[in-house]
Write a structure and sequence with these properties.
The protein is built from six helices and seven strands; from the N terminus they run βββαβαβααββαα. It has helices at about 65-75, 100-120, 130-135, 140-145, 165-170, 175-190; strands at about 10, 35-40, 45-50, 85-90, 120-125, 150, 155-160.
């Protein structure tokens, strides 16, 4: 029996000069900006498409399925909260239709600013949206890139399926775990 228990990781405060950013239009969706969570000085930066929900309809904190699956995989390969910083292509959760390509392009500027201060040893892109945005290639995907370390924009980068894809298709769990092992081993060797 595993002693794993998912939890909400500490949230890094959004810098004051970005809290009210309206460049991409997602501020009109009524969701708050989530800059990142976990350890801002972690060796592994995990990149997802958007922050999803951290609060339920009554505004009570909860751990969504994406976070549960991500944390379970990290736990199983021996990583802890101190090893990981999770951030997003979009810093706000979209709740209705929006211009996806334009919004992602605009929001990537926030990620580039984060990378200037974070200096991760490895970036782990989870899901095709994160992969296509960070690799700057709309035709690439996790399936063809996973299992390897790539140099992307000067950063050691690897990929894995999105945690929600893994929840929907449990047969992806072994591959997801292999990709997390690759990330953990790479960071361990680079220390």
């Amino acid at each position: 029996m595993s002693d794993f228990c998912a939890s909400l990781w500490p949230e890094e405060p959004t810098p004051e000069n970005h809290k009210h950013c309206s460049d991409c239009g997602l501020d009109q969706h009524g969701t708050r900006m989530v800059w990142g969570e976990g350890n801002p000085a972690a060796p592994i930066l995990v990149l997802l498409d958007n922050p999803g929900a951290r609060e339920d309809r009554e505004n009570q904190p909860f751990v969504c399925g994406t976070r549960q699956t991500l944390q379970q995989a990290a736990y199983e390969v021996g990583l802890t909260t101190k090893d990981l910083y999770v951030t997003y292509i979009l810093k706000r959760r979209p709740i209705r239709a929006y211009d996806k390509e334009r919004t992602r392009e605009i929001c990537m500027n926030h990620l580039y600013q984060q990378l200037k201060t974070k200096h991760p040893k490895l970036i782990l892109c989870l899901g095709n949206i994160a992969v296509q945005s960070f690799f700057q290639n709309p035709d690439t995907d996790v399936k063809t890139l996973r299992g390897q370390i790539h140099n992307v924009q000067g950063y050691n980068t690897t990929t894995a399926y999105h945690p929600l894809a893994v929840r929907r298709r449990p047969n992806l769990w072994p591959l997801f775990l292999d990709d997390w092992k690759l990330a953990a081993e790479f960071v361990e060797k680079s220390q």
